[in-house]
Amino acid sequence: MLKESFNQYSFILDKTAKRVKQFAQNSFSAQGIDLTVDQWSVLKTLYEFPLLTHKELADKCGKDQPTLTRMVDLLLKKGYMKRVEHPSDRRCLHLQLTDLGGSKVQALAPLVKDFRMRAWENLSQEDFEHFTRILNTIYNNLETK
Amino acid sequence: MLKESFNQYSFILDKTAKRVKQFAQNSFSAQGIDLTVDQWSVLKTLYEFPLLTHKELADKCGKDQPTLTRMVDLLLKKGYMKRVEHPSDRRCLHLQLTDLGGSKVQALAPLVKDFRMRAWENLSQEDFEHFTRILNTIYNNLETK
DNA sequence: TAACAATTATTAGTATAACAAGTAAATCTA
DNA sequence: TAGATTTACTTGTTATACTAATAATTGTTA
Q1: B53-87: per-residue pLDDT in tens?
Q2: Does domain B7-141 have CATH number 1.10.10.10?
Q3: How far is the CA of B80 from the C1' of C15 (A)?
Q4: Which is a Pfam family this sequence falls into (chains A, B) (predicted)?
Q5: Over the stretch A75-103, which tens digit does the pLDDT of each residue have?
Q6: Where are the domains of chain A?
Q7: B36 touches strand C (CB under 7 A)
């Protein structure tokens, strides 16, 4: 049914994801922001879900646990988040943004809004819906379980 | 116009690109294939464009030159490609697949076809066209020059 | 209850790729 | 011819992914 090869989508997908990340990273660097895009995504996720365990945050960010642990170590060193005891399960640690972390996320909001505007020029709300639907479908199709 | 934040697309984009890559990588590993997905994309590109310089190949693959040089070193060590003198410009080197490299790409074709089928379940040819159009638009919108 | 299994976070080691800065050779240009 | 540009390479650093193993805790079941 589909004539084109894997290339014709995986290359485009990969190239575009990489360019978005690079563009964001360059904007961060140009503003002197001491975060990688991935680190920002961790902070942002925690901003939206203020109290998560390592495992929950890792899942939401699509990272494995060792990777997240190292990222948290870094963000902790930078003072943007903290680890807190879990009230009922002593294996777990709850993660929280510090005030500094929260205001960092807020400070980045306008910058991030600029990416969006720039990236979505010449595209419509309908395109956005296609985009999310198609990408989510691919994502779910490749569930490994 | 667009209500959602950067997250609502960059997260999905990044997550999906990562999952596609992981899925491909797992399939490669399960078949005992000694290539990363990025290495495969280099070989595949060179398969389609049989005679490229470092710079041309780097551009086509979206890699910078130092990264490509190291990847070529690796692929050369594995015997999949070779460097050849450029006939008219002695600064350049032409890159070519070896016979081994060519048959490797061919051997991977059915596997790669499986990814495509799996990823695109429940999606139409029309979706594919939306997909490529939208991603290419974003890609071009973020051109840094 | 005791033994075993599963879960959570961590640690360590390795590999890949991105990025930055600089070098050398060749080519182009003014 | 002198200087600028291009091409490829080298080196060093960093971020992230993956694997495997460990310790502590919790859950399960015989």
Answers
A1: 999 999 999 999 999 999 999 999 999 999 999 98
A2: yes
A3: 19
A4: MarR
A5: 999 999 999 999 999 999 999 999 999 99
A6: 7-141
A7: yes
